[in-house]
Design brief:
Layout: E1 20-23, E2 30-31, H1 34-42, H2 51-70, H3 77-87, H4 94-102, E3 109-110, H5 114-123, E4 127-132, H6 138-144, E5 153-156, H7 157-160, H8 167-177, E6 184-188, H9 191-200, E7 205-209, E8 221-222
Parallel strand pairs: 1-4, 1-6, 4-5, 6-7, 7-8
Antiparallel strand pairs: 2-3
Helix pairs in contact: 2-3
């Protein structure tokens, strides 16, 4: 495994080679752009947040959000937003929360190593696609991050009217790829939305992007997307 910090927690890596790898977008391929975010909060006269802290806040908030949802709580995405701002050391006035929800062009900072990881898969003849819970702008965000033309299929939940973890959004993507579920893997940073949905849809395997090592036992995970290629047969 090339010394990569891949952790299995008892998970057995599937031996058969998939034809396609489908990715989440936010937290997997792209993150909130630090410059855009700091420009946004400056409108409320708040101090800039260091990029590393924003990244850490994203993954901690996502882990907490997924854990609570998996535990049976019914939480809207606003819970993640509030948690993210708190972990970033920021207050979240109601008018700022509303503006943040309505903002466009925030999620276009490429995750380090993501482009190289995807291009490596393409070079190894894997087909690649994206399924994202987004606001209709995921294709635009991927283009801004340098992923334009890279993915064979890009599905945005707002465009199709169904969101992860509903298996229907995965089924739509598989139909567009012309593949059965057992020929695809899924990669994402939420064990509830991404991996739970992929499992319900019958995909062959799923991989959690888990830089903090907080994923559930039994879940195939990598600390960084750059390690993904080491997992694939």
């Amino acid at each position: 495994m090339s010394g990569a910090s891949i952790h299995y927690a008892g998970f057995r890596v599937p031996g058969s080679k998939p034809e396609a790898v489908i990715f989440d977008a936010g937290g997997t391929l792209v993150l909130i752009d630090p410059d855009r975010f700091n420009s946004f909060i400056a409108g409320w006269k708040l101090p800039a947040v260091e990029p590393g802290r924003l990244i850490d806040a994203h993954y901690r908030a996502m882990s907490d959000y997924a854990d609570r949802l998996a535990g049976g709580e019914h939480l809207a995405f606003g819970w993640w937003v509030e948690r993210f701002f708190g972990l970033a050391g920021l207050p979240l006035p109601a008018d700022m929360a509303e503006a943040f929800h309505g903002g466009r062009g925030m999620w276009h900072h490429p995750v380090p190593g993501a482009m190289e990881a995807v291009q490596d898969l393409r070079a190894r003849d894997y087909r690649v696609a994206v399924v994202s819970n987004s606001d209709g702008t995921v294709a635009e965000a991927l283009n801004m991050a340098g992923f334009g033309g890279v993915f064979e299929v890009v599905v945005d939940s707002t465009d199709v009217g169904v969101s992860k973890p509903d298996p229907a959004i995965f089924a739509m993507t598989l139909r567009r790829l012309g593949l059965p579920a057992e020929k695809a893997w899924y990669v994402g940073d939420s064990h509830f939305h991404d991996l739970g949905g992929a499992k319900a849809a019958g995909l062959a395997a799923s991989v959690l992007i888990d830089p903090l090592g907080r994923g559930p036992a039994g879940q195939m995970s990598v600390r960084a997307i750059s390690e993904l290629g080491d997992l694939l047969p």
